[in-house]
Amino acid sequence: MTIIVPEPILSDNNNSEAEAKEEGNVDGSLKLDGGFMVPDNNAFGNSFRNFFNESERHAIVMETYRRNHIYQTYEFATKMKEEYGKLDKAEMSVWECCDLLNEFVDESDPDLDEPQIEHLLQSAEAVRRDYPDEDWLHLTALIHDLGKVLLHQSFGAQPQWSTVGDTFPLGCAFDPAIVHSQFIKENPDSKNPVYSTKLGIYSESCGLDNVTMSWGHDEYMYLVAKGNDTKLPPEALFVIRFHSFYALHRDGAYTYLMNEEDKKMLKWVHIFNKYDLYSKSKVRVDLEKVKPYYLSLIDKYFPAKLRW
To answer: What residues bind Fe cation, as annotated (predicted)?
Structure first.
């Protein structure tokens, strides 16, 4: 089965979201804005992705990133990718994995302290409202964080610092755009004569497919989807793998590693990011009401049981 994904159109920043919504999709293409209205504050009453708000939550987030930035080395990420890329830790359905995430809260997220399944459903339902015909994007939103199952004891109970948080390339210089980059100086790779150069082990426009990213849930779920021959389109896999690469899609860092295909795919990360980031709230989705729909999508795009 081949999924044809229409090219998204990036709306003019001078137009309001209301205007973009009113214009509609006259040519059948997708608009970046959709109809989603971005809230002013997160569930705690702060601005979104505010990593400097003094609070108990802030201390937890800060410590997670401190450890992440010290221990995420090229050697570590390569080793983890090799180990978990075997997909020999478990065999279960996509929905069984969703259920496991009920036990965990992401300690790198300053915007939400709810179990992960809530975030997945909120993201998916927000996308579904704005892009009702793009069912592959609904499912992508539902599964994008399933790699956080690495926190579960069945997967070795990996620490939060190696599972959650923003991701970034390894094997080349760290960019100041990386959140909490002040901790990077303690990472051994920052002193490596090769890894500390702009291109490091890479070449200009080598393509993100050839770049080793910091290890975490993004990379793991990408390996799981790809390794189980998902029927999701390449755009979905790109979103899954790079949705936490904020230094690139928010700040424009590391563009020199991208090839032309990456530049086309990045538009979908921009579309998805709004729903990933701003749909987080304390309002629960009615699970029993929406579950049959998502089970039908899982059945369409994945085998009944996946190797994890």
So the answer is: 119, 144-145, 217, 243, 276
Instruction: Kindly state the helix (H) or strand (E) to which residue 8 belongs, with its residue range.
Output: strand 8-9
Numbered residues of the known binding site: 49, 106-108, 119, 144-145, 148, 165-166, 217, 243-244, 276
**Average pLDDT rounded to a whole number, residues 75-86:** 98
Element (H, E) at 264: helix 260-278
Q: How far apart are the first and last CA of the chain?
A: 23
Distance, CA of 297 to CA of 293 (rounded, Å): 7
Q: DSSP of 161-226, one letter per residue?
A: GGTSS---EESSPPPTTSTTGGGGGGSGGGG-TTTTSSSTT--TT--GGGPEEPPSHHHHHHHHHH
Q: Are 46 and 143 in contact (CB under 8 A)?
A: no
Q: What is the pLDDT of residues 235-263, one digit of tens each?
A: 999 999 999 999 999 999 999 999 999 99
Q: Name residues whose C-beta falls within 8 Å of residue 27's C-beta, 6 or more positions apart in sequence.
A: 9
The pLDDT tens digits of the residues spanning 110-141 come to: 445 567 788 899 999 999 999 999 999 999 99
Binding-site residue ranges for Fe cation: 119, 144-145, 217, 243, 276
